[in-house]
Amino acid sequence: SKGRVVFSGIQPTGVPHLGNYLGALRQWRKLQDEAAPEDTLLYSIVDLHAITIRQDPAQLKRWKKEMLATMLAIGLDPHRSIIFYQSSVPAHSELMWILSCSASMGYLSRMTQWKSKMSLPDDASPLDTSSKAALKLGLFSYPVLQGADILVHSATHVPVGHDQSQHLEFARELSNGFNHIYGPILSQPTTILSPAKRIMSLKEPTLKMSKSHADPKSRILLTDSRDEISKKIKTALTDSITGVSYDPETRPGVSNLVEIVYHLNDGAAPSCEAIAKDCQDLSIKAFKEMVADCIDAKLSGIRERYYEILNEEGGSGLRRVADMGGMNAAASAEATMEKVRDAVGL
Ligand code: ADP
Ligand code: NA
Question: Is 203 inside a domain boundary?
């Protein structure tokens, strides 16, 4: 019998932060470690998604390489997981077009990320980037590409952050719509939700940690030095209440730090409440030092491997990994595409 097919992707838009790691990347590694021999794992650096926002070409190339190095540094094994650049497998774009021909505009326009853009003024010129007129087709249709990414590999399981479940629902809708017309060809992927729901911004702990926030001190990057981690945690927004306790409602800043420690300990730790109780008599300063130590202890190995990988042989090792992943991913996609083309009459 066939095993499960796991697919997930991440955009090459800079070094991942602690939220990306705890909410996504670490889960990928865990799934790889727990996979049965007959399972297939595909992890894609989704460069075609990255260009829905205008990118500097040289920087995008650099970011792709850095994301690949990060994925290896967190322990993804290219002999166990298929690690590849999305654009190296044209079948992703091909299936996207085919799915576009049956995707519902109405459904797409109800997606929250698009809807949030609908409040922009619509009377300005296309050169005014803050107007509706400047919105791009690719941004509207990228959930179709996301669906194609998953379905082209006949994925059965998709590990995603909680913010992505709506897009998974849409992928299932695309699959249903296609299968309704052409027969049972595309898979019905199920979601694997990450245990780390939302790591919050260090500066605005009611918002999620994100690369799109202006203040770089609001997030810890996987490549941050011991010193940078300490500085960022030291300046993290907390409150004026004495001691440590866990209450995300009234103490979001302190509670976020507790949750970071909890999730870094990978379920081996006691609950957030127990961690807070252990630290209840510490000053916030001492608690923050403890949090910084904990983050550094978990990230230092990743950071060292990252720089080793990136500096090795002028990147030829990374090229080999990308080539091998691209070939294996193309073979996986082709198995689905032969059936799809035949069914559609292409
Ligand atoms: P960002 O919000 O920084 O742009 P992405 O949207 O590129 O991050 O997310 C990449 C992955 O990381 C997704 O699976 C997403 O669910 C997860 N993720 C992003 N931010 C967080 C966070 N603050 N906490 C937990 N998971 C997150
Ligand atoms: Na995002």
Answer: no
Domain of 226 in residue numbering reads as 216-308
pLDDT given at position 8: 97
Model confidence, pTM: 0.93
Task: Give me the sign of the Cα torsion angle 251, 255, 257, 260.
Answer: negative
| Ligand whose nearest atom lies closest to the CA of 13 | 1
Tell me how far apart the alpha carbons of residues 171 and 324 are, in angstroms, rounded to a whole number. 27
Nearest partner of 108 among 152, 173, 52, judged by Cα: 173
H-run or E-run covering 290: helix 284-311
Active site residue 231: no
- In the predicted model, residues of the chain with pLDDT beneath 70 are 1, 122-129, 267, 269, 313-314
Which pLDDT value is given to residue 131? 74
- Cβ(259)–Cβ(294) under 8 Å? no
Helices first, then strands: H and E counts in the chain: 14, 5
Q: Considering only CA atoms, which of 199, 153, 126, 198 is closest in space to residue 42?
A: 153
What residues line ligand 1, using a CB cutoff of 6 Å?
10-11, 19-20, 22-24, 160-161, 163-164, 196, 198-199, 208-212
Q: Which of 18, 163, 215 should be mutated for ligand 1, with most atoms under 8 A from CB?
A: 163
Q: Is there a domain that residue 243 lies in?
A: yes
Shared domain for 44 and 187, answered yes or no, is yes
Look up the CATH number of the domain holding residue 176: 3.40.50.620
Q: Say if residue 160 is in the same domain as residue 225.
A: no
Q: Which DSSP state fits 118? A: G
Model confidence over 274-286: pLDDT tens digits?
Answer: 999 999 999 999 9
Distance 22 CA to ligand 2 centre (A): 15
CATH number of the domain that residue 229 is part of: 1.10.240.10
User: What pLDDT score does 127 carry?
Assistant: 63
pLDDT of residue 313: 67
What is the value of ipTM here, to two decimals?
A: 0.94
